[in-house]
Amino acid sequence: MLPFVWSDDCLRHEAAAEVWVGVRTPATELPARALAIREALVSAGAREVSSVTHDDSALLAVHDPALVEFLRTAWDNWAAASLPSDRVVPYVFARSELTSGRTPPTPTAVWAQPGLFAYDTMTLIGPGTWEAARAAVDVALTAVDLVANGERVAYACCRPPGHHVTRSLYGGSCYLNNTAVAATELLSRLGGPIAVVDIDAHHGNGTQELFLGRGDVLTASVHVDPGAGWFPHFLGFTTENGAANLNLPIAPGTGDDGWLAAVREAAEFAASARALVVALGVDAAAEDPESPLEVCAAGYREAGRILGELGLPTVVVQEGGYDLATIGPLVVETLTGLAR
Ligand SMILES: [Zn+2]
C-alpha cells in the first residue's frame, strides 16, 4: 500500500502547444498524463494522500524569488496586455553576454519579460500554469513529509514536471523544480547527503546546475546522449561529472540491458546517501514519442528494484513520460520494484 500524493490543482496547467523550430505544435505534457498515472495507481492498490499546502520557504531555498514572482504573475500580465498569442511565449532572450554580465533591467514591455526567465520557446504559460506548478511543489513536499514521518517510499504524482528548471530559468516543459525542492527539504529534515537519481529519458540539467559544486546533494542522471542531438543539447555530458555529479548518457536505441547498467551505476553512486529522490520520467519507454530509448516494462520494474535495494528513505517525483497508454502502468512497475 505505497502512498501517493495527489492534487487536483496539478490538472490546471494546459500548455496547449509548444513552439519548436518556429512551429506551433500540440503540447504533449497534458493533464491526462497525471490522470492516467492516478488511475493505474488506484487499480494497483496504492493509497492516495491529499496534498497539503506548504509555505514558500522550501521553494525559495531553490529558486530565485524573481523567477517565482514572474511565474506567479506572468499569465495575468500577458492577458491584460491583449497580445495576439493565447499563451506567454518569449521572443527575445536576456543572454548574459548581451549585457556583458550586468543584470539586465526588467523590460517595460510585457512581451519582452519572458526573455528574462525562459530558455526555450517550448514552455508556454497559460491561465492555470502557476497554480499547477505551485501545486506540484506542494505534492512533492507532502511526499517528503510522509518519508520524514517514517514511510520508506512515497510517490509525488505531480505535473508539470520540473527537472529542467535552474535557479532562475525555466524551460523543457518545466516551471518549478519539484525534484530539487524535495531534495532540499529532505536535506533539512533528515540531514545529508541526499542523492537525486534522475531516470527520465532527458538529462536533469536544472537539478544538476542547482546542486553543482555542493557535496550535500549528489546528482546522477541516466539519459539519452545530448551529443546525439537530444534535449537539453548543451548539458548532460560526462565532462560535467565530478565528485557530486554523475552523468550517464546512453545512445539512442538503447534498451533494458544498457539502460539498467547505467541505472545500476547511478544507484552505486547514491548508495552512501542519507535519503534518495528518484526523478521518475518514464519517457525512456519504447512506446514514448519524446525519446529514442527502448526500455520495456520489465526494465522499469528492475530499475525500481535496483533503487529500492539501496534501502534508503525515498521520495519519487514524477517527471516526463508522454505515452498516455503506458505511462500509468510503467510508473506502477517502477514503484512496485521500489517498494518490495
Ligand atoms: Zn524527459
User: Which range best describes the helical content: under 10%, 10-25%, 25-40%, 40-55%, 55-70% or over 70%?
Assistant: 25-40%
Uncertain stretches of 5 or more adjacent residues: none
- Number of DSSP strand runs: 10
Bound molecules: zinc ion
Shape: globular
The structure class reads alpha/beta
- First-last Cα distance: 11 Å
Order of helices and strands: EEEHEHHHEHEHEEHEHEH
Q: Strand percentage, roughly?
A: 5-15%
User: Helix count, per DSSP?
Assistant: 9
Oligomer: single chain
Largest sheet: 8 strands, parallel
Radius of gyration: 19 Å
Q: Average pLDDT across residues?
A: 97
Query: What spatial order of strands do you see in the largest sheet?
Result: 4-1-5-10-9-6-7-8
Structure in words:
With 340 residues, this protein is α/β, with parallel strands linked by helices. It is 34% helix and 15% strand. It contains 9 helices and 10 strands. It has helices at 31-43, 57-62, 65-80, 129-148, 178-190, 205-211, 256-270, 297-308, 327-339; strands at 3-6, 17-20, 23-26, 47-50, 153-156, 194-198, 217-224, 245-250, 275-280, 314-318. The chain has an 8-stranded parallel β-sheet with strand order 4-1-5-10-9-6-7-8, with helices on both faces. A two-stranded antiparallel sheet has the order 2-3. The longest helix has 20 residues, at 129-148. The protein is globular. The termini are close together. Bound molecules: zinc ion. Zinc ion (ZN) is lined by residues 200-202, 281, 283, 320. Residues 200-202, 281, 283, 320 line the site of zinc ion.
